[in-house]
From TrEMBL:
Gene source species: Steinernema carpocapsae
Highest classification ranks of the organism: Eukaryota, Metazoa, Ecdysozoa, Nematoda, Chromadorea
PANTHER family the record matches: 40S RIBOSOMAL PROTEIN S19
The name this protein goes by in its record: Ribosomal protein S19e
UniProt cross-references to PROSITE patterns, sorted A to Z: RIBOSOMAL_S19E
Pfam families named in the record: Ribosomal_S19e
GO molecular function: RNA binding; structural constituent of ribosome
Length: 145
């Protein structure tokens, strides 16, 4: 008996890695030319160390839209934001870079995984939901006995 398996049924970190690997392998997602120079927010001190960070962020946004949509750029800025270290002064929350999130959403729109919602924000398309479920169902089973 084959058990139906979706994105919500598997480990979330693992599914984001598998979606990122799929996006990289498919060749449809191009990394922007500024990807090696950009910080992911004002609270960050350095650019990302992982050379495939763009695929991971795009996959993470696709997964978040699968779980909770519609969502816009402002909502994602809050999700990926963090506290900024201000030395001896108290830390404060700062939102993530909107440009990176906007480009990732535009990338997902270009491959027909995301579409604009009439009331604002973005939602996952039927094609995107089907592809994410297929990727999740192809993940190797992890048994913890």
């Amino acid at each position: 008996m084959v058990k139906a398996c979706g994105v919500k049924d598997v480990d979330q970190r693992a599914v984001v890695k598998h979606i990122a690997a799929f996006l990289k392998k498919s060749g449809k997602v191009k990394i922007p030319e500024w990807a090696d120079l950009v910080k992911l927010g004002v609270a960050k001190e350095l650019a990302p160390m992982d050379p495939d960070w763009y695929f991971v962020r795009t996959a993470s946004i696709a997964r978040r839209l699968y779980v909770r949509s519609p969502a816009g750029i402002g909502a994602f800025r809050k999700v990926y934001g963090q506290s900024i270290n201000r030395g001896t002064r108290p830390s404060h929350f700062k939102q993530a870079s909107g440009s990176v999130i906007r480009k990732a959403l535009q990338t997902l729109e270009a491959i027909k995984w995301v579409e604009k919602h009439p009331d604002g924000g973005r939602i996952l398309s039927k094609q995107g939901r089907k592809d994410l479920d297929r990727i999740a169902s192809q993940m190797p089973e992890i048994t913890s006995d």
